[in-house]
Amino acid sequence: MQLSLIVSSRRHILAAIASLGLVLGLTALPAPAAPAAVPADQFIRQVGTETLQALSNRSLTTEKREALVRDLLTTHLDLEAVGRFCLGRYSRGLSDAQKQEYAKLFEDYLVKVYAQLLSQYNGETLDVRENARAVGNETIVDSQINRPNGPPIRVEWKTHEKDGKPLLTDVVVEGVSMAFTQRQQFESVIQNNGGKIDALFAAMRKQISGRR
To answer: Is 143 helix (H, G, I), strand (E, B) or coil?
Structure first.
């Protein structure tokens, strides 16, 4: 079974681009002296809007775009937690070798997906609401993506702290969790191949290589 991209609709693509834009903005700013110096909603508003504007640059080669995306994801996304969530119950049965293989495949897979999404930016802007919400150990920031042609898209950003650093864990678009959607897709591939994790690994390799 062939894996499709992590998101399949135009709405999800826009949200993924915005989330990547947010992360890109984070890399361009110096670390604040104290984590609470700037409220989360204000911080996202500032860097997200500036970065979405920067995404209009079409001069990046595929190789440079993928290298940039890899740096952003490994720095600002909790790859370990998100990867484990996307694998669901199948994460418990992995050998040490399989865990290492999956971690590398998951990173490469996201790099390929987000590098493609980044190239589809088309002038969207990001409006972030005030008053981020604390839900359990996560902080949720509400926003909307405004499109040149079409109604706005409601987006929630979910982050948590790890080793004293905020990391992105999910983006929820119009009530649909991107992480949960990816989990359903991964589990479907495994279930349709007799519960074999290697079938998922093969599908991920195919997606990464760009083969049909």
So the answer is: strand
Backbone φ and ψ for 142, nearest 5 degrees, come out as -90, 145
Q: In whole angstroms, give the CA distance from residue 4 to residue 161.
A: 30
Residue 112: burial class (beta carbons within 10 Å; 0-12, 13-18, 19+): buried
Could you identify the residue written with the tokens 């290697």?
A: 198
Among 176, 167, 184, which residue's Cα sits nearest to residue 4?
A: 184
Cβ atoms < 10 Å from Cβ of 38: 15
> What per-residue confidence (pLDDT) applies to 210?
80
Can you tell me which residue has the tokens 């070798």?
Answer: 97
For the stretch 44-49, contacts whose Cβ atoms lie closer than 8 Å and that sit 24 or more positions apart, written own/partner, are: 44/126, 44/128, 44/141, 44/143, 44/157, 45/126, 45/127, 45/128, 47/22, 48/18, 48/21, 48/22, 48/126, 48/128, 48/143, 49/125, 49/126
Indicate whether this model's pTM tops 0.90.
no
Cα 64 from Cα 46, distance rounded (Å): 25
Tokens 């104290």 appear where?
Answer: 34
Mean pLDDT, contiguous 10-residue spans, the chain (212 residues)? 48 51 40 44 59 62 80 83 95 94 96 79 78 86 86 87 79 89 94 95 92 62
